[in-house]
Amino acid sequence: xxxxxxxxxxxxxxxxxxxxxxxxxxxxxxxxxxxxxxxxxxxxxxxxxxxxxxxxxxxxxxxxxxxxxxxxxxxxxxxxxxxxxxxxxxxxxxxxxxxxxxxxxxxxxxxxxxxxxxxxxxxxxxxxxxxxxxxxxxxxxxxxxxxxxxxxxxxxxxxxxxxxxxxxxxxxxxxxxxxxxxxxxxxxxxxxxxxxxxxxxxxxxxxxxxxxxxxxxxxxxxxxxxxxxxxxxxxxxxxxxxxxxxxxxxxxxxxxxxxx
Length: 260
Prior knowledge:
alpha+beta
């Protein structure tokens, strides 16, 4: 089976510039900056995780059509989604072994704590508050704190839920090693419509995965092409339009190669 190697992602710089500009605008708010400082006081992982989740969320939100204030509110909520962890005991947050049932119940309270912290600020939108509260809800009702189903969970909270899990699983922690991005994507796709909104997960994987549409790739056959589309449920096995053969000759008509 052929496998691609990434060369360049088309328009990636444009999207990242947009995200950077929006994040800079968000961080002009003193309250948000102050709360991010509190997040950093938990540990460097939580801070970097929060920034990563914001970037992933903004890219996904933009991909599904969010613009203006709804996109900005998504960024704010994503940056501060874990702010409630400042209320959880450090010994629990940094425990290198499995948590007890009682300890895990305490960790889960960070969603409610976060909501209360953000709700009490006049500078934070209701949407951002709900992101902190609902980012661990799951579409089949198995999440927490309220076991909401897909129809009730706000759109922005569902986006952050996806970004949150992806970044957490692709990062080393004291109690486990990180997974490879393609392993995480396959795992998350297996939970589509169970834990995650399928349409939003499709948007996420199309723009955040190893092979976004429009990415120039080289196959292990020596051929070069462009990622044209994804096989549903298998974003790491895209459909490639080959435009240069293994002899580096440009093809008059693109050849389609399905990596599934």
